[in-house]
Each structure stands twice: as C-alpha cells, then as structure tokens.
Amino acid sequence: MNRALGVCYYPEHWPEEMWARDAAEMVEAGISWVRIGEFAWSRIEPEPGDFRFDWLDRAIAVLSGAGLKIILGTPTCTPPRWMLERFPDMLAVDAQGHVRGFGSRRHYCFSHAGYRAASGKIAEVLGDRYGRDARIHAWQIDNEYGCHDTILSYSEAARDAFRAWLVQRYQSIDALNDAWGNVFWSMEYRSFDKIGLPNLTVTQPNPSHELAFRRFSSDQVVAYHEVQVAALRARTEAPLIHNYMGRVLEFDHFDVGASIDIASWDSYPIGFLSDRLEGSAEHKARYLQQGDPDMQAFHHDLYRAVGKDGRWWVMEQQPGPVNWAPHNPAPLPGMVRLWSWEAFAHGAEVVSYFRWRQAPFAQEQMHAGLKRPDNAPAPGLEEAAQVGREIADMPQIALQQAPVALVFDYPSEWAWATLPQGDGFSYFRLMLDAYRALRRCGFSIDIVPSNTTDLSAYALVLAPGLAAMPEALQQALGQTVALVGPRSNAVTDELRIPTPMGPDLPGLDVTAARVESLPPHVQRPVLGGGAVQHWIEDLDGSADTLIEAETGQAVLKGDGPMHYLGAWPDAELWERIVHGLAKEAGLAAQNLPEGLRLRDTRTHRFAFNYGPEPVDFQGKTIMPADVAWWGI
Ligand code: GAL
Questions:
Q1: Which long-range contacts (CB under 8 A, 24 or more apart) does 228-234 make?
Q2: Counting C-beta atoms within 10 Å of the first and last residue's C-beta, which end of the chain has fewer, N or C?
Q3: 445-449 and 69-73 as β-strands: parallel, antiparallel, unpaired?
Q4: Last residue of a domain, one of 393, 413, 433
Q5: 408 and 382 in one domain?
Q6: Are 136 and 72 in contact (CB under 8 A)?
Q7: Structural domain tally of the chain?
Q8: Residue 542: which domain range?
Q9: Across the chain, what does the average pLDDT equal?
C-alpha cells in the first residue's frame, strides 16, 4: 500500500459553490483521501426517518470527481436533538451523578439499548446507500470513543447492564462476594439486583467493584461498536476504521480493534503536551511548539499493534494551533512536516490533516485548518504539500521487526487508576517513561499486547507495571532478556493481593515484600547515578541485586535474563538500566542528543529533531523541527 495524505472535510459547513474548488485544491496539495460525514446526522436525517441524501450524493460526486478517495463516517457520536425525544434516558451520567446534556457531542451512554440500536440502524441505512459505492474507499465508525471522558457512565441503563454483566461473570452472588472480599465493611450483597455503580460512595468504593465496573464499561464500548461493525460488514467490502485518541485508556483498544481492519488515531502533539502530559515546566517550555518527542511515536507504535496486520493511519493530524488545550501555541515551522514523516516512518498508510478549512463558527472556530476561515492558505498547507511531493519519491516504506518490545495492557491502567496507592501513579506515565528511555538510547520499538505468547523475535522485552500477568506471557518473557516491575504481577484479576505475593514469576526469585509511594518533590538517590521517584519496593529473594538505592533498598534485581525493577526510576536511572539490559541482550544502546529521535525501517534511518536547536548526528546537522533520512 502506498503512503498517502488525506484531509477531514465538512461539506455541510460550506456553500456548495465552494466544494469543487476545495476538492481541486486538495488534489493540488497532494492529498488523495478525504473523510466526510462523521458529524452530519442532523443533515442526513433532520427528522426521524426523513433521510436527505441529495447533498451528500452531490458532495461525494464532487470530491470523487476530483480524484479523491472518500472515507465515510457514521455520525453516531453526534446524535441529533430529536433522538433525545425518542430516548430521554440515553444521556451519559458522570461520576457525580450529573446528566451530560445536549449541546456538544458524545452525549450518549454506551449501555443504552435504544440508542445502540439506533446507531446500528443509521449504519445500516448508510451502508445500504453507499456500501457498494466504489467511491467510498473506507468507513470510519463513530468518532473517538472516549474523547471528553465519555466511557464511564453512571446512568440507570449502565447500572442495569452492569448487573447483567456481573451475573455472567460471577454466576452466583456468593462467588461475587467472595471475589471482591465484601465481608470487609459488611459490603456483602444478597442478590445481584442490589448492586449499584461504584460512584457517590462515602469514601473509596471496593477496588474490586470499581475494576469490575471499568472492565464492564470497556466491554460496553466493544458491544456498541460491534453493532455498527455487523451492520457495515453485511453491506460493504471496504475497510472499517475507528479513530482513537491520545491517552484515552478507559476501554481496551485491542478489543475494539479486533473486529475492524485499520486502527487510526488523532494526533495533536502540541495540544497533548499542554493538556494531558506530566512534565517539568522546563520540558514543557522546551517542547512548547513541537510537542513531546515521544508521545506521538508511542501512539504510532501502540496503534500499529491495535490495527489488524499492523495496518494503521493518522486520521487527524494537527495542522496549526488547536482550540481545546489550556494554551494553544503554533507549531514551529517544519513541525507539521516532521509529524507527518514520523507517522510514515512508524508505518502509517495515510496521514490525514484535521481539517481542510478553519470553521468561522461554533466550538472550534479558533482551531486552525490547512486553510484560514477566509480561504487563504494557512501555514500548514505548504508543509502538507511538501510532504505530498516527498512521499511521491518514497511511496513505499518497509517496516522491520524492532529489536525491543514493550508490553502494553489496558486492564493494568484500570487496576492502577483504581488502586494508585500514591497520587500520580499512572500506568500510562510509567509506560511512556520506559518508552522514552528506550528511545533516548536510539531504539525502535514494537508495542505488543499482554496476550502475546511468543516474544522470541525480540532481544529485549519490557513489561513494567503489568498488574496481573497472563500465564502465557510469563512463559514468553522467559524467551528473552526481560524487565518487569515495578508492580508487575502484583495483584490478581480481581485486584487482590495474591499468595505467594508478586511478582512470583518463573525463573525469578524476587518478592515485593513492602511498597512505598513518595510525594512528587522526593527523590531517593541511587548508588552509581540517578534516583528513584514516586514508588519504591522492598525486595526479598535470592536474585542478584544489580542496582541499589542509597537507603540500601534493592532497585534492580536479576536472575539470569529476568530482571525485576523495584522502583520508578528518573530519566538518568532509566537510561542506566536500559544500557545495562541492552548490553546483556547484545544490542548497542546510544546516547542521543537531547530532542533527537530515531526510527529505523528496513531501508532507511529517520532522524527527527524535536529540539529547538540544531544537533549533529552521524556526520549530519539536523535543524530544529527538521527530519532527515538516509539509507541503511
Ligand atoms: C478531535 C476530534 C475532531 C476535532 C479535533 C479538534 O478530537 O475528533 O472532531 O474536534 O479533535 O482538535
């Protein structure tokens, strides 16, 4: 599949006279895909059952006539106002018990049976009309499940569905009481229909209850999604796609991805740095106009794993300042091109910009597009066009097996969000720190799911924070040099402490005997350099102590190729650890210049300079916000 550019377009936002010129200019800019329709329900079906396809037919004709391939979205993330008259109880409810009202988007509860059926119905109607239309080359289902914090809903529909889910999982109320330890604080239930949702309790609800609710909520997304998948599969051969978001972790993307063909995600590097990443003020100032150097690549690698046969796209690429983060600086000149090339180097088939032209109205009127609201070109357009010219010279990018794998597991995020034991203990953050350390040492990385059974192709595998480790993964880790911990295999599936206590892994005589969480300003120095932050464990067992804190606590233990990390390292300590492991694994770790990141494909090495100053690397000077590549 050739690499290609795309764009998100809203014909319903613009006078019809503009469409043909827009389409021609897209093609001129090297764009070949256009996504439409995902928010257009109120124009497709203005009154229940009154379908208006005339405008959509004409938009499809114009866009396709210009040579563009169309991705058609199902509009289910924006149910129109009349839907509420039909289903007044379809609205999601937040953890404080507030109903999430109409007037923006994503206001539905995944558990509402009536709305779920209505979503399936509109997918059927669209599938009937356009499923065999050769101008529609792909379908996007819904838009960004989970955006705006919309997975966990505490509605009556969710409560009823949760009870039914619990009956399936536990079969008897005694089994549930036992699994959750409800004897504690007299929380025992006598029947499933007495179980509520884990919100509005006086203090923390039972963590097993909360984890069950999180698992249930993820399963509800999957069930909701599969209704539309079934509707479309019966009506089209075109690939089905969903566009995931950055650091949205409340549902298992591997489960959603299993029934569709391509994973895609929406990459807003500068918005993410401001809105959803930890980091010092210095780090945030340094990367203010570039985005965090690892956040995008992390998601590229994650969604490559989520996509069937590794197929993935960037469905929405930030083109200029966004509107939704606390502060919204402009990208440094060159960054739109850098982000695009980084995605291609990680295997994206398509990079599609959001959006063609900035809307002069409504919530996103301050969000840049490739064109300004007055239709003049915005700075992102020329960068996109440059990428378009460049990929014409390198249409194929062959990926290769990375030397290092990182195991990623959504239920571990839910486990530690439920039982953090210290403010700021986030599984995602721990994973991004590990990923960052590997990248600073120059490695290309594959992210793999926790149901992986074969890791023998990797020289080195990291699985930090993996709360409850499947048996097969435990065996697979034995095939390679591996690092687990902190908090790996520390709890059961029900979020209880097991006996023997964790990690209890084959070939690793280590027990995490006691744990401590540390406030943000505290660091425990480590002998030989670096420090521990956030978290440290007391480790028992006969495995060798390889790194020790000044307190005498073992930080890294090793038993042959298996290693256990009993703490959360700072950046310096992470890099020491990665260098040591790489050596054991026969890999050459580097120390890259600040802000530089590499990605190796089968034929090329790509180097991305996220930093604000030029760097010298392997005989080349790479300017800020620039990307270089050469053959390997
Ligand atoms: C995405 C969303 C788009 C648009 C964009 C703005 O989260 O899918 O519809 O809102 O953000 O950055």
A1: 228/74, 228/76, 228/119, 228/120, 228/123, 228/141, 228/142, 229/141, 229/259, 229/260, 230/120, 231/120, 231/121, 231/123, 231/124, 231/127, 232/74, 232/123, 232/127, 232/131, 232/139, 232/141, 234/127
A2: N
A3: unpaired
A4: 393
A5: no
A6: yes
A7: 3
A8: 404-585
A9: 98
127-155 pLDDT, tens digit per residue, is 999 999 999 999 999 999 999 999 999 99
Q: Indicate if 417 and 347 belong to the same structural domain.
A: no
pLDDT digits (tens, 9 = 90+) for 56-72: 999 999 999 999 999 99
- Residue that is written with structure tokens 């129109």 in the block: 80
Domain-embedded: residue 199: no
Marked catalytic residue, from 226, 250, 316, 413: 316
C-alpha separations of 506 from 125, 288, 406, 465 in Å: 53, 45, 19, 17
Q: How far apart are alpha carbons 26 and 39 in whole angstroms?
A: 21
Question: Model confidence over 579-610: pLDDT tens digits?
Answer: 999 999 999 999 999 999 999 999 999 999 99
Taking the C-alpha atoms of residue 472 and residue 469, their distance in angstroms, rounded to an integer, is 8
Does residue 596 lie within any of the structural domains? no
Q: What is the pLDDT of residue 1?
A: 64
Q: Which of 25, 45, 124, 144 is catalytic?
A: 144
- Separation of 273 CA from ligand 1 center, angstroms? 16
Q: What's the pTM value of the predicted model, to 2 decimals?
A: 0.98
Separation of alpha carbons 511 and 32, rounded Å: 55
Q: Is the distance from CB of 425 to CB of 416 less than 8 angstroms? A: yes
Instruction: Give the CATH number of the domain where residue 419 resides.
Output: 3.40.50.880
- Of all protein residues, the one whose alpha carbon is nearest to atom 11 of ligand 1 is 266
Task: For residue 41, give the amino acid letter.
Answer: W
> Of 350, 369, 393, which one is at a domain's C-terminal end?
393
Q: For residue 143, which atom of ligand 1 is closest to its CA?
A: 8
